[in-house]
Fold:
Amino acid sequence: METVIAYMPSILSGTWVTVMVSLCSVLLAVLLGLLGAWAKLSGSKVAGGVAAAYTTLIRGVPDLVLMLLLFYGGQQALNDLGEATGWWGYVEISQFTAGVFTIGFVFGAYMTETFRGAYLAIPRGQVEAAVACGMAPKLVFSRVVWPQLVRFALPSFGNNWLVLLKATALVSVLGLHELVWEAFTAGRSTRQLFTFFFVTLLIYLVLTAISDLGLRWLDRKYSAGVRRA
Amino acid sequence: MAEQEPSPGLLHAIQQFSEEASPIDFVLILEHWPLFLEGIWHTMVLVALALVVGGIISIPLAVIRANRTPILNPIVFGYVYVFRGTPLLVQLYLIYYGASQFEIIRDSFMWPILRDAWWCTIIAFVLNTAAYTTEIFRGAIEAVPHGEVEAAKSCGMSPNTINRRVVLPNALRRALPAYSNEVIFMLHGSVVASTVTIVDILGAGRILNSKYYLAYEGFIAAAILYMILVYFITRGFKVWEKHWHAHLRPREV
Structure:
């Protein structure tokens, strides 16, 4: 117990890094998801094809493989390109960037399906009614489509967020000083790996519980006016 | 006519192209096919074993959850909550690195098992997938129409017979689409085995990369192999679904 308290500052700083990686990647994932959903719904063959290839690739390849590929391969590719063109010098991708980009990229594919499904759940007649009332396309989006898109997307978004939070543990393999890495280091130097991984487990459970509360609050906010059977 | 061997000049040219001009050295990957074959074998055995054992464990747990069996239900709920709420990587580390902290374990008959990366990975995977599968099966059991259970009851079936003859066959069939996702997630999740020294597909890729100090080759080969496996799993489940859901398909006119 005392050893855990002694190492608490580094464990907490690791927790903070985990939370930051998760928040940055979910932001990227939502942006990619909206873009992907738009591409799939746009009816354009090229955009739809690119989005379909994107989601198939992500469904096929595990996240850790993509992460290692981006961290090691992406760095070399950038440097080879920089050397060949002379546009930039030596660049280094940090573990944080590699982690955020891969996790954001992977979950962007899942978010694409989330937003596509949510958009299709909005009754077509409502958009038509709004247009008939003389609303401009922008106004239709902000007043009719967007609030309901959020409402319908929330349950699936919540699931994705919880999976994403756990996926950030993989960034420790790259050596980012996040929760799992800090616990590993502390546990190895004190020879109490079980204790520290158990604490890690508890911290993940707390993070999940807090997320649950937040998601419930969002759900209440966005389903104001919905009557439940 | 004698069989024509590809001229050594052509082979040499391919090799030279692969090493120098092509962005990835594909000849090097192909030369290491036994390594990747070993990786595929280990990944498939790990995932299949975890799914089978985890699936068998999860059926009684799902029945406990769905029936709200007193005393057992909160315990199963706690187990499922912990294993679904934490990363598989941490679960694996807890078992593999954590077990050695206790002298009681080190001195017991369990130690040869808990010292071995292979067994620890199997245990972690089984516990993880059983938790997820319990939730999938619980949902499916609760979705079984109540009328079917009532009909079975009025025929005089005992609760066990109802479960065995009516509820479970129906529920497991309905759970198939959700379960196919779990299989793919388990395959994706199995890459963490490579972090505890097991040579799975990703492990093979990492060995190739560190042996020749490469950045992409091993990972790209691994990515392609995983995609192929996912493709076959998806196809397999489609066939299986067609077979098991034959009565649910809309009738062709």
Observations:
- The mean pLDDT of chain A is 91.
- The two ends of chain A are 49 Å apart (CA to CA).
- The first helix of chain A runs from residue 2 to 6.
